[in-house]
Amino acid sequence: MAASRIFFGLLCGNPPQHSDAQDMPTPKASPPVLTPQDLEAFARKYAPILLTEGKRYNIPTRADADGDWDASNNASNYDKFLAGAREFIQKPYEKDAPYFPTLYYEAIVTSTHLFITYYLFFPHDAGDYHTFEPGDPRGGHNNDATSLMVVVPRSEKPFRVITQDHGRITSMSQTEIRLHGDRPVLEISSGNHALRGLKNGEKIREEEPEARRQIFLYAHGEKGQEYKLLRVHETLWLQRKNGDLFGGFDGETGVQFKGDHGPWAPWARPFTDSVPGMIGFALGWRLAESFFDPANVLCLSGEECSKGYLKNPYTQDR
Ligand SMILES: [Ca+2]
User: Fold this and answer.
1) What is the pTM of this model?
2) How far, in Å, from the CA of 244 to the mean position of ligand 1?
């Protein structure tokens, strides 16, 4: 049995299996060993469904989608690419197409909780309410990002979806947010990429006759446009000391991408509006404890919450 199934069994509070040796003293069970494949399975299970207007600037991509790890040329390279690829703009993405829709994720696990961060990176921020296409005057700035975290407690307790957007923290429970299966549904605002969880029961534009066209992004490809999932620890985290990618550092770790209003790295975006965190954030570069140590920061409100990590590679190599 895969470790992920064992772990979800633990999460869901499944009863122990009958055993002929149940009267015998049993050794204490070892915690499951979680593999990268298990972490990806967790991320896929809760991978959000994202709605956005059908403009390529509103689709999250890899941070190195232009072929290098220099963050200072991302908007201009994307612009040049789109200007020479009108057909690309009109058609669905082909497999392995440049700038294929991509989300970064990280899954940090305790015996009582899953903490799954999803990080959306964009080569260009077109500014509020704008959806500039090639040839139009552009506003905004080079590079943009937004993120969400899904906090999944064990047993029947509802999970939470926390969005971190333009410094605003919003938490919605499993009963408040619109779901598709286990997957929360969120909208990426056109232009500035503000991220908003849809309310349970809220209509999506596809269901309205006068709908503006929206792209539906899925990790599973069941409908709409599929996106890829890349693990932060195996991609962006390896570049954390790269001075071509980051312009702001906390020690040796890059925390803000290069450029005017460069976005925060996934590990520098807090998922709590606790006063110490936000004051520290406002005063200078810092890492987000809610990303590195979510059990300590986010396990509040009295629910059972282990602070012993089954999988948290960042505790070793920060
Ligand atoms: Ca680049």
Assistant:
1) 0.85
2) 9
